[in-house]
UniProtKB/TrEMBL annotation:
InterPro entries from the UniProt entry: Rab-GAP-TBC_dom, Rab-GAP_TBC_sf
GO MF annotation: an example: 14-3-3 protein binding
SMART domains in alphabetical order: TBC
Gene3D superfamilies referenced in this protein's UniProt entry, alphabetically: putative rabgap domain of human tbc1 domain family member 14 like domains (1.10.8.270), Ypt/Rab-GAP domain of gyp1p, domain 1 (1.10.10.750), Ypt/Rab-GAP domain of gyp1p, domain 3 (1.10.472.80)
Source organism of this protein record: Geotrypetes seraphini
Function: May act as a GTPase-activating protein for Rab family protein(s).
Boundaries of every Rab-GAP TBC domain copy: 210-434
Keywords: GTPase activation, Phosphoprotein
Keyword flag Phosphoprotein: yes
Protein name: TBC1 domain family member 22B
Pfam families the UniProt entry points to: RabGAP-TBC
Length: 505
């Protein structure tokens, strides 16, 4: 009965603001055997097409042959058909076995096979920083030992990488957590923040290369415009804004059960468990209740857009940063119920106001038809065509539209493409950069796309390109990679932002 009711709800609310739309790759990836089966089954269908059809696979062909992640429930019990065994002639079997042994011995003698194996060794030699990474590294080496002919499979071989990299792993290369230079920068931050009137311009300059963890919460509050620069006014401002937020809770939150708000709240309630599903912190009921209140109050106070799927992701960096102010250990496994009620209330209110300040600058991304995202994706296409026409023409050749992968980049501010620790580092710069979330983000997306130009040019069909662009291997990224990405983005902004004649064809 519950299943029938849920199916009716999806059909009834398919066009509501914030309802799930068929955006490819919009889901978080927990690996699901049912999806894998669907993929293998669909892949075999694609492989069965004649060569003429495979030469230039179109988007429509891809859509018809790919099961959407939201449509799993209808055939959950479906499985592979049982194999049919037929009697084999013993001579044929012996001849086939001899042929297999001969082919295997030839493969072992090929220099390119040994070279490809040796090329993969450095990947497995990375410094392992989390227990999940170590476990999966051992699993990948075991599977390679059991399946020496894995490269002959029809599916593309991709390295097995950990699903979760810890939020605290700021440097993927194993650098020491605090260098002499970083200690000097921390002292500079403390000096700025403790002055009677904090110089926001100087604070932005210091924050651009990254903010030390100890001073990040108060720095984010200042750069968001939530906290005043005057030291004497800060305590009263925080008290007043936190009381104001919980006044909204008392005034509006009970209306979630009213008919005209019920669909909004229901959509929020559905999306919250999907927010970073592989990080235990966000699966705690108390944290999910906090997120539900924040998102519902924001939607009620911004009726022009209401709640749109993707806004739920934008709460997480603020929540983690303000939580880290009260937690010494890694926050991803921290039990929030151990904190006092007053601390939890302050974290919730501060997350709400800072997220609201962020969304004030990009609200046209979430109004009807999302015109802000449409414009940014078009601007990204024009920018890439000027930066790297080879990549741009490669997309055109295989009929890949920028909207098919860059919509998520703009809607979620690259949060689905990067580990959360990288998003926090990225947002240090976004808050320090003028119009960082609305304008500078475009150049970060362009630099991010060109970063994978070799992998993009190696893919020679529509499906392969889209799979690559929606599953880019950034799980091991840390501060160093984000720093290089931001440097390239700044270079592009310097070249193109103030040169409209060069920006367009």
């Amino acid at each position: 009965m519950a299943a029938d009711h849920s199916k009716q709800f999806w059909k009834r609310s398919a066009k509501l603001p914030g309802s799930i739309q068929p955006v490819y790759g919009a889901q978080h990836p927990p690996l699901d055997q049912r999806l894998t089966k669907n993929f293998i089954r669909d892949r075999s269908k694609v492989n069965a097409l004649p060569m003429k059809g495979k030469k230039a696979s179109s988007f429509h062909e891809f859509a018809r042959s790919t099961s959407d992640a939201w449509d799993i429930g209808d055939d959950e019990e479906e499985d592979f058909p049982p194999p049919s065994f037929e009697a084999l002639n013993s001579k044929v079997a012996l001849a086939t076995a001899a042929q297999v042994l001969e082919n295997h011995s030839k493969l072992r003698e090929k220099p390119e096979w040994s070279q490809s194996i040796s090329d993969e060794v450095p990947i497995n030699c990375k410094v392992i920083k989390s227990s999940s990474e170590a476990h999966l590294s051992r699993a990948s080496s075991d599977s390679l030992a059991r399946n020496p002919l894995q490269k002959q499979q029809s599916l593309p071989l991709r390295p097995i990488i950990p699903l979760v990299a810890r939020i605290s792993d700021q440097n993927a290369s194993g650098m020491p957590p605090m260098t002499v230079r970083e200690k000097t920068r921390l002292e500079k931050f403390k000096q700025l923040l403790s002055s009677t009137n904090t110089d926001l311009e100087e604070l932005r300059k210091c924050s651009w290369p990254g903010i030390p963890r100890e001073v990040r919460p108060v720095t984010w509050r200042l750069l968001s415009g939530y906290l005043p620069p005057n030291m004497e006014r800060r305590k009263l401002t925080l008290q007043r804004k936190r009381e104001e937020y919980f006044g909204f809770i008392e005034q509006y939150y009970d209306s979630r059960n009213e008919e005209h708000h019920q669909d909004t709240y229901r959509q929020i309630h559905i999306d919250i468990p999907r927010t970073n599903p592989l990080i235990p912190l966000f699966q705690q009921p108390l944290v999910q209740e906090i997120f539900e209140r924040i998102l519902f109050i924001w939607a009620i106070r911004h009726p022009a857009s209401g709640y749109v799927q993707g806004i739920n992701d934008l709460v997480t960096p603020f929540f983690v940063v303000f939580l880290s102010e009260h937690v010494e250990e890694d926050v991803e496994n921290f039990a929030v119920q151990s904190l006092s009620k007053d601390i939890l209330r302050s974290i919730e209110a501060d997350s709400f106001w800072c997220m609201s300040k962020l969304l004030d600058g990009i609200q046209d991304n979430y109004t009807f038809a999302q015109p802000g995202i449409q414009k940014k994706v078009k601007a990204l296409e024009e920018l890439v065509s000027r930066i790297d026409d080879q990549v741009h023409n490669h997309f055109r050749r295989y009929e890949v539209e920028y909207l098919q992968f860059a919509f998520r980049w703009m809607n979620n501010l690259l949060m689905r493409e990067l580990p959360l620790r990288c998003t926090i580092r990225l947002w240090d710069t976004y808050q320090a950069e003028p119009e960082g979330f609305s304008h500078f983000h475009l150049y970060v997306c362009a630099a991010f796309l060109i970063k994978w130009r070799k992998e993009i040019l190696d893919e020679e069909d529509f499906q392969g390109l889209l799979m690559l662009l929606q599953n880019l291997p950034t799980i091991h990224w840390g501060n160093e990679e984000i720093g290089l990405l931001l440097a390239e983005a700044y270079r592009l902004k310097y070249m193109f932002a103030d040169a409209p004649n060069h920006y367009r064809r």
